[in-house]
Prior knowledge:
alpha+beta
Amino acid sequence: MTPACAVDSDSARDDGCPLVLPIDALLTAVAIPPPAAQRRWAAPWRKSLRALTVSLIAITVILGLFAGAAGQARAQSATPEGVEVSNLSVARTDQGLTLDFAARIWPNRTVEDALQRGIPVYFIAEAVVYRPRWYWRDERVSRVSRSWRVSFQPLTSSWRVGSGGLSQTVGSQAEALALVSRFSGWKITDSGHLPVDQRFYVEFAYRLDTSQLPRPMQLSVGALNEWALEFERNLTVD
Length: 238
């Protein structure tokens, strides 16, 4: 008969029974911390994990905002606005200096809404001819301008373009804007003001004339910024 084995942790066993240690001795041997120590050890990790989670959420939100802003910018850039110039040149002739200009106008939403409501919109082109001087400010030789008035006629669903006492009626807004943004052979100074042995240059500007807007629109600075539609460039006279 196999002898009964007793628990004895203080002496070696020589009776063939396995050595059995008390539970306290086993916990000490494998170095398992007590529950209180486990809670103290786990608390910092919980805080770190919580902070990491909050940081990841914040980064995700920020990236989403940037993605939305980039998408909105791409959508806005897909719709052109402003003055797209395809030709701008000056030439000497027997009569004087002439200027050619061709552009396409892309009105923004503010200008578009005003045109559709029948508010007249004015465009102006200005050209100033200068003679450079090294010893003083440049001499202004001549200054000329021309303007156009564009308006929508709701009763007839037509567009009227006027300039210098003359007017023309067209069927679409695109045609009306094309008439006010293209001209050729515009005489900006006489030949007598342009000696061949001297150099000259031209300051050209084309814009929507905000001074002709209705008075309530002119009182708002923000409105004027929304009405900004212009193009400027300097040209050398050969």
